[in-house]
Amino acid sequence: QITTLINHKDKPKRSDKTLQAIQRVGQAVNLAVGRFVTVGEAIANENHELKEEMSVACIEARRAGETIAQLTDVASLDHPESDSHITIFTDKTGVVKAARLLLSSVTKVLVLADRIVIKQIITSRNKVLATMEQLEKVSSFQEFVQIFSQFGNEMVEFAHLTGDRQNDLKDEKKKARMAASRAVLEKCTMMLLTASKTCLRHPDCESARINKDGVFHRMRLALEQVIEIVTDSRPNGENEMVPISIYSGIKEFKNKVEGLRENLYFLSKENLSTMLEVILEHTEDFTDSAYTSHEHREHILELSKQAKMELEQLVSVWMQAQNQKTKDLMEDLEVAILKTCQCMNELKREVHSAATSLAADLLKYHMDHMVLKALKITGVEGNLEAVAEYTCKLSEQKEQLVEMCRLLRHVSGTEPLEITCIHAEDTFQVTGPQIISAAETLALHPSSKIAKENLEVFCEAWESQLSDMSMLLREINDVFEGRRGEKRVYLSLPRPGKHNANLKALKPVKLDTEEQAKIAKLGLELHLLTSDVDSETEKWEDQENEIVQHGQGMSSMAYSMYLFTRGEGLLKTTQDLFHQAEIFATEGTKLASALHAFSDQVHDDDKPLLLLEAEKLISMCKQLQITAKASVQGKSATFTKVDACILKTRNVMTLLCQLLPLCCKLLRKNKAGNGCLKPAPPWREDRMRTGTNAHTPERRAETFGIKSLENHVTNMTFLESK
Cytoplasm among the record's keywords (predicted)? Predict the structure, then answer.
């Protein structure tokens, strides 16, 4: 609005409409400033140490707003330029000065308010730390109950303050670090409760004490990291050192190489050589890893050698071009640049394949939680020898998962995902030994209900982290394949005017919290179905098969619709969702066409069943398209349409889960035993056998510690019975 006032054109003739518009803008600015200042003054009254500074800034802002209102009070003037009254037309510099004063004073208010928020978070952290010290020293259940109730209230306050701060952060890297720290605090709050109770019940047990001390230590580190993020500082003035990943190293290296097209002199050959050396040093994390397959190791070593050769050739041509800039040399330089970049792309693709295939196999291998189940059983039996055996197995599992996180970090693609990988690595490193100490405590006290509950809590944290890793792997693959940021064509949303002539007339509607909750259940079902479809497509040996390609595309789109039900992802409004549903239905129709073509290759006995399923798919996709294209007005009708779109997408995905294994079976049958399923990795051969199937626990998405913590505080009366 201020920009509009300053940039208005000084026309000789001014209509009444123009004069009224200028006055309305000036009044609107003044009213907005008034409301802003009222909030600032209220904050000042609650914070006496900054009251004077805040009050001065508020007075300046109010004065600037009133000045703008006076200068734009022109609607009643027939000839403002001849009137003695000063207006925007006679003193435009006055408006500029007032606008600058307003900007300066508003900035001061915001900076002071930010300082107050930071102080509130630090004060809240200090309260939590002080209460934690008391909790560490308690010696009776009664005292513990009283102090933990206070601790719970303080953690709830800290959760709200840091949650608001996380939402306000603009730096995605800081936001990811804050999310990681808050996740640690969420899980550790529950661990602190059961670990402390176990220690109180068994005060002479060394493993129980180690278990409790580990939780307190980790919580203190997480609290410290929150303050580092909030204050943008580190202890002793240290700079944050995040290891460079292969992905980011290759990206920077390619940018430098491609920059030679514009400027042959902006960097030295030594700089390029050093950058490549750093990248190749990081590839040793893959080649030295015991979990990297022989094929991946050989390919990475071969590509590393080729990268050195391509750089040598590039440097040779580059040096010649600096001395003699002929057409032939510039063409040779272009070829050398292209070959170097192509080699680096292949190296990036190879390390990505090595990391993600290892992660997928490990997560699938450990998803039944056999070692955790065995620890619980042998702990209750008091079998110390068996517990020792399974703790060794858990330590091996921890090393595998830590290595997986390190390799995934190299190919994560974005800084926030890198930070998430580092957080996951830390979680496995810390939680593994804590599970072991909890299991040892239970084995020493097999009849202790609280020791059993304590082990359950730590095992749940491990299982939850494994579940989170599956989501992280999906996000890393999405970034690499262009489904986040630069999305694939089938994920791109139609643009106004290009795909839908009526789109401009439609206003996007955002769902409120209650409506989000209503579709959350449908969204969860959709998420589970995308996982099932992905599992089925991974079983196909020929990943370029048209049926697989369409299935993967539909799964990706359904996943983005699931994220919408959580208020996350690339689909921000209901209109985005409807467009995605249309594209999803189109992709389903293409899959049906591919199924018809495939039916010509199968035996006559199998053909009717396949064609019947294909017709079902066509019918469902048509219904979804009709629903997605239907015009609706009003919030209630929009929500009904959202619900219908997600429901029909879920139905299509359910059918897809049946179609993919059927097609794979028919293809295998036609190949007469040649097989279309991938063999199991050789390192799985020593897997423990079991007759039971584990179910992955649903991921809890509540604000950290608030709901679950309040439940624990409420149930504190049961402490004595345990």
Answer: yes
Q: To the nearest 10°, the Cα dihedral for 61, 62, 64, 67? A: 180
CA distance 429 to 402: 7
Residue/partner pairs of 362-366 with CB below 8 Å, 24 or more apart = 362/291, 362/400, 362/401, 362/404, 363/466, 363/469, 363/470, 363/473, 365/684, 365/687, 366/397, 366/400, 366/401, 366/466
For residue 496, list its beta bridge partners.
500
Q: Is residue 95 located within the same domain as residue 153?
A: no
204 and 301 in a single domain? The answer is no
Residue numbers in the chain where pLDDT is lower than 70: 1-19, 74-92, 234-243, 483-518, 604, 672-722
Count of the separate structural domains present in the chain: 4
Looking at the structure, do residues 421 and 346 belong to the same domain, yes or no?
A: no
Q: Are residues 589 and 628 in contact, defined by beta-carbon separation less than 8 angstroms?
A: no
Flag whether 423 is in a domain: yes
Q: What confidence score (pLDDT) does residue 698 get?
A: 36
User: Long-range contacts: 206-211, Cβ < 8 Å, 24+?
Assistant: 207/437, 207/438, 207/440, 207/441, 207/444, 208/437, 208/441, 208/451, 210/437, 211/434, 211/437, 211/438, 211/441, 211/454
Q: Is 686 within the bounds of a domain?
A: no
The pLDDT value given to residue 688: 35
If we measure between CA atoms, which residue out of 473, 479, 493, 698 comes closest to residue 581?
493
Q: Which domain holds residue 347?
A: 246-359
Domain match, 476 and 496 both = no
Which of 653, 675, 697 represents a domain boundary (last residue)?
A: 675
Same domain, 494 and 617: yes
Virtual CA dihedral for 247, 248, 253, 258, nearest 10 degrees? 90
d(C-alpha 30, C-alpha 21), whole Å: 14
- Residues 210 and 289 occupy one common structural domain: no
**What tens digit of pLDDT does each residue of 582-616 get?**
999 999 999 998 888 888 887 767 778 888 888 89
**In this predicted model, what pLDDT tens digit does every residue of 318-354 receive, in sequence order?**
888 888 777 888 888 889 999 999 999 999 999 999 9
How far is the C-alpha of 137 from the C-alpha of 327, rounded, in Å? 79
Q: Is 204 helix (H, G, I), strand (E, B) or coil?
A: coil
- Is the separation of the CB atoms in 573 and 510 below 8 Å? yes
Report the CATH number that the domain containing residue 91 is assigned in CATH: 1.20.120.230
Indicate whether 510 and 648 sit together in one domain: yes
- Give me 474's structure tokens: 């999906």
pTM of structure: 0.63
What is the CA 82 to chain-centroid distance, rounded? 61
Taking the C-alpha atoms of residue 202 and residue 197, their distance in angstroms, rounded to an integer, is 9
Cα–Cα distance, 337 to 257 (Å, whole number): 6
- In whole angstroms, what is the distance from residue 542 CA to residue 677 CA? 9
Q: DSSP class of residue 239?
A: P
Helix or strand (DSSP H, E) at 680: none
* Residues 238/179/43/233 CA torsion (nearest 10 deg): 0
Which 8-state DSSP code applies to residue 325? Answer: -
Rounded Cα distance, 653 and 530, in Å: 7
Handedness of CA 164, 194, 216, 714 (dihedral sign): positive
* Residue after which a domain boundary falls, among 299, 331, 359: 359
3-state secondary structure (DSSP) of residue 512 = coil
Q: What is the dihedral of CA 41, 43, 46, 50, to 10 degrees?
A: -90
Buried b (16+ CB within 10 A) or exposed e, 188-210: bbbbbbbbbbbbbbbeebebbbb
